[in-house]
Write a structure and sequence with these properties.
Distance between the termini: 51 Å
CATH topology of the largest domain: Lipocalin
Radius of gyration: 23 Å
Number of domains: 2
CATH superfamily of the largest domain: Lipid/polyisoprenoid-binding, YceI-like
CATH architecture of the largest domain: Beta Barrel
Shape: elongated
Helix content: 10-25%
Strand order of the largest sheet: 1-4-5-7-8-9-10-11
Number of strands: 11
CATH class of the largest domain: Mainly Beta
């Protein structure tokens, strides 16, 4: 009787291992981890200053993503932006933006975006929900995410606005608009 129980237990453990391998294999087939194409990806912004549009960008950021249109539950898009990489075509302005009254780079060197859910609207349009953290202040964000896919890449495009005052950026300046328009193009290469 004892030998039969041991054999049954061994068979059960083998079947459990096979099932685990099958389940893990199935999950990796449905998700698509992407590798950031740093030359094709960009984050730009525009803000009015004295009534004029001032464009800029962040040249250094790391995006991590996983995307499957057929299984969005495991899909995500997370971004870590180096504040030091800000560029507005004015060295003096860029230096000022790193100071305490703007981004306070010594205390907050990064801007973070963490997605919480991606929901399908149409075959190429999705709702991206998540949280953005600037200067230690975390706020929820919802934006439309336009997605195009090819055999080798997935491209995400998004365009949204933030109120800079919600994050304590730029103080109460009256010559600087409260609204900052942000555009992001993220190109991920399929593994």
């Amino acid at each position: 009787m004892l030998l039969t129980e041991v054999l049954n237990f061994n068979i059960f453990m083998r079947l459990k291992k096979i099932a685990l391998v099958f389940v893990l294999g199935a999950f990796t087939c449905f998700s698509q981890e992407l590798v950031q194409d740093k030359t094709a990806s960009e984050i730009t912004f525009t803000i009015k200053n004295f009534g004029f549009n001032v464009p800029g960008n962040f040249s250094q950021f790391i995006a991590s993503s996983n995307f499957s249109a057929s299984s969005l539950k495991g899909s995500f898009l997370n971004v870590k932006i180096s504040v030091a990489s800000i560029f507005t075509d004015s060295e003096a302005r860029d230096k000022h933006l790193l100071e305490v009254d703007y981004f306070n780079i010594k205390k907050y060197p990064n801007i973070l975006f963490e997605s919480s859910v991606i929901e399908k609207i149409t075959p190429s349009k999705y709702l991206l929900k998540g949280f953005i953290t600037i200067k230690g202040i975390k706020k929820s964000v919802e934006t439309t995410l336009n997605v195009t896919t090819s055999q080798t890449t997935v491209t995400f495009l998004t365009d949204f606005s933030l109120n800079r005052r919600d994050f304590g950026v730029g103080g109460s300046s009256f010559v600087l608009s409260k609204e900052v328009n942000i555009k992001m193009k993220y190109v991920g290469t399929k593994n």
